[in-house]
Amino acid sequence: VDKELQIKIIEALLFLSEEPVSDDKISLVLSVPSDEAVMLVRELQNKLKADERGLQVYEIAGGYQMGTLPELATHLEKAFSEDVSSNLSAAALEALAIIAYKQAVTRIEIESIRGVRSEHVIENLIKRKLIRVSGRKEGPGRPLLYCTAPDFLKYFGLKELGDLPPLEMEIQEENLLP
Amino acid sequence: MMQQAEYQIKLPTFEGPFDLLFHLIKKAEVDIWSISIANITAQYLAYLQSMKELNLDIASEFLVMAATLLRLKSKLLLPRAPRASDQEEDEELFEINTAEELFQRLEEYRLIKEAAAFLRDREEAHQKIFLRSTGGQIWEGAHHLSDIMHRFAEATHADAYAPAFSAVEDFVLAEKSAYICSLLELAGQPLPMKDFINAGGTWEIIITFIALLEMARQRKVILLQDRLFGPILVALIEKEPQKEETSG
Q1: A19-23, B128-132, B201-205: which range is least confident on average?
Q2: For residue B147, what pLDDT is reported?
Q3: B166 to chain A, minimum CA–CA distance in Å?
Q4: How confident is the model at residue B122 (pLDDT cuts 50, 70, 90)?
Q5: Which residue has the higher pLDDT, A94 or B198?
Q6: Distance from CA of B42 to the nearest CA of A (A)
Q7: Is the sign of the CA dihedral A149, A154, A157, A163 positive or negative?
Q8: At residue A170, what are phi and psi to the nearest 5 degrees?
Q9: N or C: which end of chain A has fewer CB within 10 A?
Q10: Which residues in chain A have Cβ-Cβ distances shorter than 8 Å to B16?
Q11: pLDDT in tens, B162-173
Q12: Is the Cβ pair B122, A158 closer than 8 Å?
């Protein structure tokens, strides 16, 4: 099969899919090894980027997905304004950041970092499917443990959890005395 | 009292005591590890005071933090006692025993705030990208009744605890009853049940059936069926002047 055709197939495949498509799936469809599939997607991605096409290929949640060019947002909102999800509150983002970096964590652990009660915030995050319960912590009370849900990566357009920037600790210990 | 409404000063809202402390530290342009407890305590209390003057609800967490700050400050003023009793681990949620601990907690909070800011940026960037959405296609691929029920349950999950009958449905029921009555009066003779169903959707059949049962119970109509599974006829019961009935 020639490469041009393979790239066209990937383009069509991504266009049709409502979920990110993994490289495994692409390699299955094209009957090529996974690393070759990745190369071909990259090629398509670069091509669309170079041509500044209305649709682009994004790497989201461990797969590839077609999405619109960000610059078109103001125009597209006129037609799809109801599709735009409301932003998360500052409190929700704080709780989500704690869960994303320290998962799995209990509610108490989240609250002790934030310094405020967070039941309501956690409930909302679960409702939005950004986090989920991953189990219970061993110990007194066996509290629920929370971790990020698959939709977390999709919501923020992240490829994987490793895409989160590292938390940088400031140098401490020495200049502690008040 | 009336004048209070005229003063509408808006204070920035903080996500919690750490958020407020963090704001004060930033304003003072010092880093977390070199803040003066005495200084920050004074500022913190001044802020709470201004909240109080504006009649704002002060969440208990803010007051706990104020108490914690005062305790830390007093500890710094007093000579250190041998800390044998301090050893026991306190399970209290926001317990902070030393200035070091406070700095540590603030630093941890600062990192999370940075991470939250990163997520906010990503959120904004990603919201500019439109993806193919599944919205509005929940029926696709549902071939069996169980599929449809499953999808329905999923789609309405949030309302799973809503009461079974709402005011809207009651209204529909009353409307249907009135409609049945008017048709019967117009016809002047019993009518088969199917005459009261127009569009014929499941919902309408259910409503019609419930309305008829209710009307039969109230003795407004009588339901007639001459054989099993035969057509059901609905007849209006002529209103007889009830007052004439004398007790025996």
Answers
A1: B201-205
A2: 58
A3: 24
A4: very high
A5: A94
A6: 16
A7: positive
A8: -80, 150
A9: N
A10: 114-116
A11: 444 444 555 578
A12: yes
Reported confidence tier of residue A122, pLDDT bands at 50, 70, 90: very high
- Pairs across A and B, CB distance < 8 A: 139
Q: Is the pTM for the entire model greater than 0.90? A: no
The nearest alpha carbon in chain B to A60 belongs to: B126
Neighbours of B151 (CB within 10 A): 15
Nearest-by-CA chain A residue for B38: A178
The pLDDT score that the predictor gives to residue A156 is 93
Contact (Cβ atoms closer than 8 angstroms) between residue B196 and residue B234: yes
B-facing residues of A in 9-38 (CB < 8 A) are: 15, 17-18
Closest approach of A91 to chain B, Cα-based (Å): 6
How does A95-121 read in b/e, with b if 16+ C-beta sit within 10 Å?
Answer: bbbbbbbbebbbbebbbbbbbbbbeeb
Tell me the C-alpha distance between B105 and A114, whole Å.
9
From the list A113, A115, A178, the residue facing B61 with the nearest CB is: A115
Query: Using 50, 70 and 90 to split pLDDT, how confident is the model at B157?
Result: low
Q: Which positions in chain A touch B61 (Cβ < 8 Å)?
A: 115-117
Taking CA–CA distances from A113, the nearest residue in chain B reads B109
**A113 inside 8 A of chain B by CB:** yes
Residue pair B234/B223 in contact (Cβ under 8 Å)? The answer is: yes
Half-sphere exposure of residue B34: CA atoms within 13 angstroms, side-chain side: 9
Render pLDDT for B198-243 as a digit per residue (tens, 0 to 9).
766 777 788 888 888 888 888 888 888 887 777 888 888 876 555 4
| Average pLDDT over every residue of B105-126 | 91
CB A131 within 8 A of CB A122: yes
B-contacting residues in A 60-89 (Cβ below 8 Å): 65-73, 76, 80, 83-85, 87-88
CB contact under 8 A, B112 and A113: yes
Chain A hits for B99, CB-CB cut-off 8 Å, are: 178
Beta partners for B233? B192, B224
Q: What is the mean pLDDT of residues B76-95?
A: 57
Q: Which residues pair with A133 in a beta bridge?
A: A146
Binary contact (A176, B100; C-beta < 8 A): yes
Higher pLDDT, residue B90 or B149: B149
